[in-house]
């Protein structure tokens, strides 16, 4: 396998996140180890199995929302939070098969884009879910060239559209930064200490715990639908494996919120290993319905076109 180019890594990030999402979806809320119990041997085939209401290869809300972010960035020529929020709302009204609790509450509130998430957080005090982190691969690709401070800030602003808890903003900012390092060929795991230094001080300690070299998903103090163990599990999966397929297998074997943990893992692993690291059989099966936007269904080639737009000079 030839070394991935930056273009291979960008496509690996966007496609890798979508493939992880589709691969993990049938195992959502299942036990630890369910994936490798069913598919003991890497490379054996048939893993895009569907189930739990998902067709084989069907991507879930994680990827659907990621596509909406990507299309907004391209059509608006940059970050237009009101436009992203409008697209999210149209999608939510299109009755997607799955939607996160916090995301649904905020998007259906009728409140304006710049206050809806904050108002929800004021009353619920629960908004540190992984639902903003899960959709961040395309925005991480888009903002990588803007540098550390700018990509982390964009991550925060995109997360804040649906998640009022700054913990969700910082987790998304961290993911943007690790991707920024990985996309030109750097080691995102080695970049963790520098990335942590750029996290808002009030949130640093908690992220330092889940990103520590000796952290393991079994040490999580919350369900992995929360932002901290979700990001921690993704970095753990990349740190403890040596290829895309093994990283995503490890992520799904964590159990719990398997589609999102695998989407976050798959984005980072795709950036590290490039699109050529993602098994062809998984790329071919992938499809992304877009509720609220007609009968559109995106395939891998459509995600590739989007990615070319995100990285265009
Ligand atoms: Mg999902």
UniProtKB/TrEMBL annotation:
SUPFAM superfamilies: ADP-ribosylglycohydrolase
Annotated Mg(2+) binding sites: 60-62, 257, 259-260
Gene3D superfamilies tied to this protein: ADP-ribosylation/Crystallin J1
InterPro entries, A to Z: ADP-ribosylglycohydrolase, Ribosyl_crysJ1, Ribosyl_crysJ1_sf
Co-factor binding comment: Binds 2 magnesium ions per subunit.
Recorded superkingdom: Bacteria
Cofactor dependence: Mg(2+)
Keywords from the named record: Hydrolase, Magnesium, Metal-binding
Membrane-crossing residue ranges in chain numbering: none
An example Gene Ontology molecular-function term: hydrolase activity
Recorded family membership: Belongs to the ADP-ribosylglycohydrolase family.
Name the UniProt record assigns to this protein: Ribosylglycohydrolase
Organism of origin: Streptomyces actuosus
């Amino acid at each position: 396998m030839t070394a991935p180019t930056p273009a291979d890594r960008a496509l690996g990030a966007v496609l890798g996140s979508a493939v992880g999402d589709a691969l993990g979806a049938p195992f959502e809320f299942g036990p630890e180890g369910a994936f490798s119990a069913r598919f003991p041997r890497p490379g054996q085939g048939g893993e895009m199995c569907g189930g739990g209401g998902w067709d084989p290869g069907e991507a879930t809300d994680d990827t659907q929302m990621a596509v909406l972010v990507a299309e907004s960035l391209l059509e608006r020529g940059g970050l237009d939070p009101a436009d992203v929020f409008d697209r999210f709302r149209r999608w939510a009204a299109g009755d997607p098969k799955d939607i996160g609790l916090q995301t649904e509450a905020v998007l259906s509130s009728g409140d304006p884009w710049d206050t809806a998430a904050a108002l929800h957080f004021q009353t619920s005090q629960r908004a540190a879910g992984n639902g903003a982190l899960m959709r961040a691969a395309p925005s991480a690709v888009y903002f990588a060239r803007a540098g550390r401070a700018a990509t982390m800030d964009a991550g925060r602003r995109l997360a804040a559209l649906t998640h009022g808890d700054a913990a969700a903003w910082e987790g998304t900012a961290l993911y943007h930064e690790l991707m920024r390092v990985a996309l030109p060929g750097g080691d995102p795991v080695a970049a963790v200490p520098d990335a942590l230094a750029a996290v808002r001080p009030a949130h640093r300690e908690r992220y330092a715990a889940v990103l520590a070299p000796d952290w393991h998903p079994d040490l999580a103090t919350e369900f992995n639908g929360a932002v901290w163990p979700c990001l921690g599990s993704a970095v753990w999966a990349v740190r403890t494996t040596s290829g895309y397929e093994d990283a995503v297998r490890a992520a799904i074997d964590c159990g719990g919120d398997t589609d999102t943990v695998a989407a976050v893992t798959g984005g980072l692993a795709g950036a590290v290993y490039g699109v050529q690291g993602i098994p062809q059989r998984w790329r071919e099966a992938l499809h992304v319905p877009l509720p609220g936007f007609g009968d559109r269904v995106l395939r891998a080639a459509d995600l590739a076109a989007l990615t070319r737009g995100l990285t265009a000079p």
